[in-house]
User: Fold this.
Amino acid sequence: MRKLPSTGTIEIAPSILSADFSRLGEHIAQIERHVKILHLDIMDGHFVPNLTIGPVVVKRIRPHSQLFFDVHLMIDDAPKYAPEFVKAGADGITFHLEAVSDPRKMIKQLRDLGASVGISIKPGTPVSELEPVVADVDMVLLMTVEPGFGGQSFLPESLRRAEELRKMLRDDQRLEVDGGIYPSTTPAIVRAGADTLVAGNAIFGRESPADAVKAIYESATANT
Ligand code: DX5
Ligand code: ZN
Assistant:
């Protein structure tokens, strides 16, 4: 199983939610050499009002990519389905604090499966609620839009939340942000402490996903 890239770098994680699902392999090939992480959004129609893909699709795309598969579970029953996604080829699993009754148990389950561990909070959940478990994860995923759909606008209060979170994290833990990430929103969120940038529409909504990745990367590093 692949490990998350070590900290100290800015990484861009294209979200296939905005890709053309009839040409998924082609779309992944377009960004394969330009990033290290691929972000896969799993939705169940309960935790969020949208439905996406299950382990079957993850398994089908696994042989076509060497990237770290960053599986973002936006589902009610994360403990039940996490093993299926790992078996299908997930390298890291991020679950929502709001969806799980015992986050410690969930973290232990993912460690036992050998996966990297991420924990996520929605925009309405106070950052402080992560305090009891934050030391035990590899990455925190701060939602910068309400989860469920691509193409929404970045919520400006995310900047303050990212700063607050960064202070709670060690240097070896990543801070991922997800939602409304474009070259225009990247500099401020990177300054606030984010180092892992999920982008869907900004990459797969463009004619050249590879050029779009470069544009985000340049905007992220221009201010450092
Ligand atoms: C939204 C998903 C995101 C989504 C982001 O619930 O978690 O990963 O693909 O899309 P953009 O970058 O278009 O806001
Ligand atoms: Zn996501």
Q: What stands out?
A: The domain at 11-221 is CATH 3.20.20.70 (TIM Barrel). The chain has a mean pLDDT of 97. The chain has eight helices and eight strands.
